Fold this sequence. Notes:
mainly alpha
Amino acid sequence: MKIAPVVPGVQPTYLAPSSVAEEDQQPVINIAPPSASGASSHMPASPLEDSMEEVSSTFAEHVERKSKALNQRKVKFVAQPGSRAMQRIEHIEKIYELIELLEHPQHAQLETQNPKMQTLLQRSPSPELDDLLQASGNDPVRCDVLLRHALIQAQRVQNTPLVERARQSIEQLHEKKGAEVSAGLNNAHAIASFSTDPTQKQAMRQLYYETIVHLQSGNAMLDALLNRFGSVHFNQGLRTLQRALSDDIAARNSSIPRRALQKIMASLKDAGHISQTLTASKLLLARLSSTLPAVGLSPLDLTRRLLNLSTNGAYLRDLQNLTRDVAGQHPHHQILFLAGLVPLVCHLPLGLWRDDSSKNRQMALNLLRTMDW
Length: 373
């Protein structure tokens, strides 16, 4: 690299303009080694020394600018936001983050399931969706992550046929199970906070798929929670799924229309009171057990029947069947049960009643009070 010599007496372009006051200019620090004589350091420098110092300074600044430019280009290549390389890195990191969220952080099942997916994708013609789902434990979101992982590996080794099959399989999955995939991606963080057990995580995802994505019913979700966890982990499961709903609503691609998710979320506002209904059911049945020869339902079953009552509306036939299942055929026993059932129905969370909630709850109470046995 050729450096043009600095002509003595000519001001370099990087110095401050002449309009700046003399006292405001920064002093130039001489980094040249001192001479052997202490007195000589105070002697004025020769024009040649001035020229060499300026050349040295100019060269140092040029090297520094070149070094900074190279570093900036390197950083731009590695971590420039929005660059293709950075997007690829972020995509790979996202895949591995999802693997940890969907599975146990230290014992991911995907490590054993991934070879199965690779084998399937090497088939000709391309595998059916049912085969892909079976290889991923019948979980659409896990299937999506496995396929994307296989796609990345195929791209790394430039296996064009495998890349094409992986892409086709992803498109097929999203065409048939896109809502479930979106739900699983959106609620992965929420469900990961519930348990580290992959089986429990998948059970929660399946519950979300069935009751929220397909049935779009908060009451169906509560019934499924009660059926799976009973009273022990009901509140924890409810909070997890409420957070999952919130994350689904906030996501860029929600699993189902946001308005439907928001309606479900609103219906679950007081759903935590179901645990109080469970307790009240237990107390009622314990009290009746001292009078009735046999009680036909457990507190959990009674709570689920009441939840079904609020979901579908109160009908005389359903109330009669419930009364017989608990109290049997004896009219006196039935009256005792109905008297204890009224406060249970009255304190069911209002948001769980269908349509006009206040009206439907009042109709159920009126029907209970006027039942003629």
